[in-house]
Inverse folding.
């Protein structure tokens, strides 16, 4: 059981499916970590200039995912005017970053990052459908 689930279980009534919320938090956190690691790996590539777009998108994805995970980890104070745009931004950046990382899928680190982005994008879409 993830820490997100354990903490959500302590909050009592949450107006969203806890399993789905947990899956989203875990996917978002994994994506932020994968993008951070991919950025570092990209910077170690021989052709760093060819990786600039990927690096920038990974940095943006890390920032958006980190903010989104923090806000949706506090569902007791849920505010649709804040949560929905964050989830929508997370979907958008994960799609862009995943697309870019797929362009570099011949590199293992980019392939892994693309997979994390796709998983995060799907989890955020599912949560948007519920919230």
């Amino acid at each position: 059981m993830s820490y997100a689930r354990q903490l959500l279980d302590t909050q009592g009534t949450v107006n969203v499916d806890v399993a789905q919320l947990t899956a989203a938090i875990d996917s978002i956190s994994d994506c932020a970590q994968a993008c951070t690691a991919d950025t570092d790996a990209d910077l170690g590539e021989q052709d760093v200039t060819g990786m600039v777009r990927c690096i920038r998108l990974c940095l943006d994805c890390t920032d958006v995912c980190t903010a989104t995970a923090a806000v949706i980890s506090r569902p007791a104070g849920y505010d649709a005017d804040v949560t929905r745009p964050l989830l929508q931004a997370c979907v958008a950046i994960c799609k862009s970053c995943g697309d870019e990382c797929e362009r570099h899928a011949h590199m293992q680190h980019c392939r892994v990052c693309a997979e994390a982005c796709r998983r995060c994008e799907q989890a955020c879409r599912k949560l948007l459908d519920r919230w």
About this structure: The helical segments are 3-9, 18-43, 52-72, 80-103, 108-130. The chain has a mean pLDDT of 91. Residues 98 and 115 are 7 Å apart (CA to CA). The chain has one domain: 3-130.
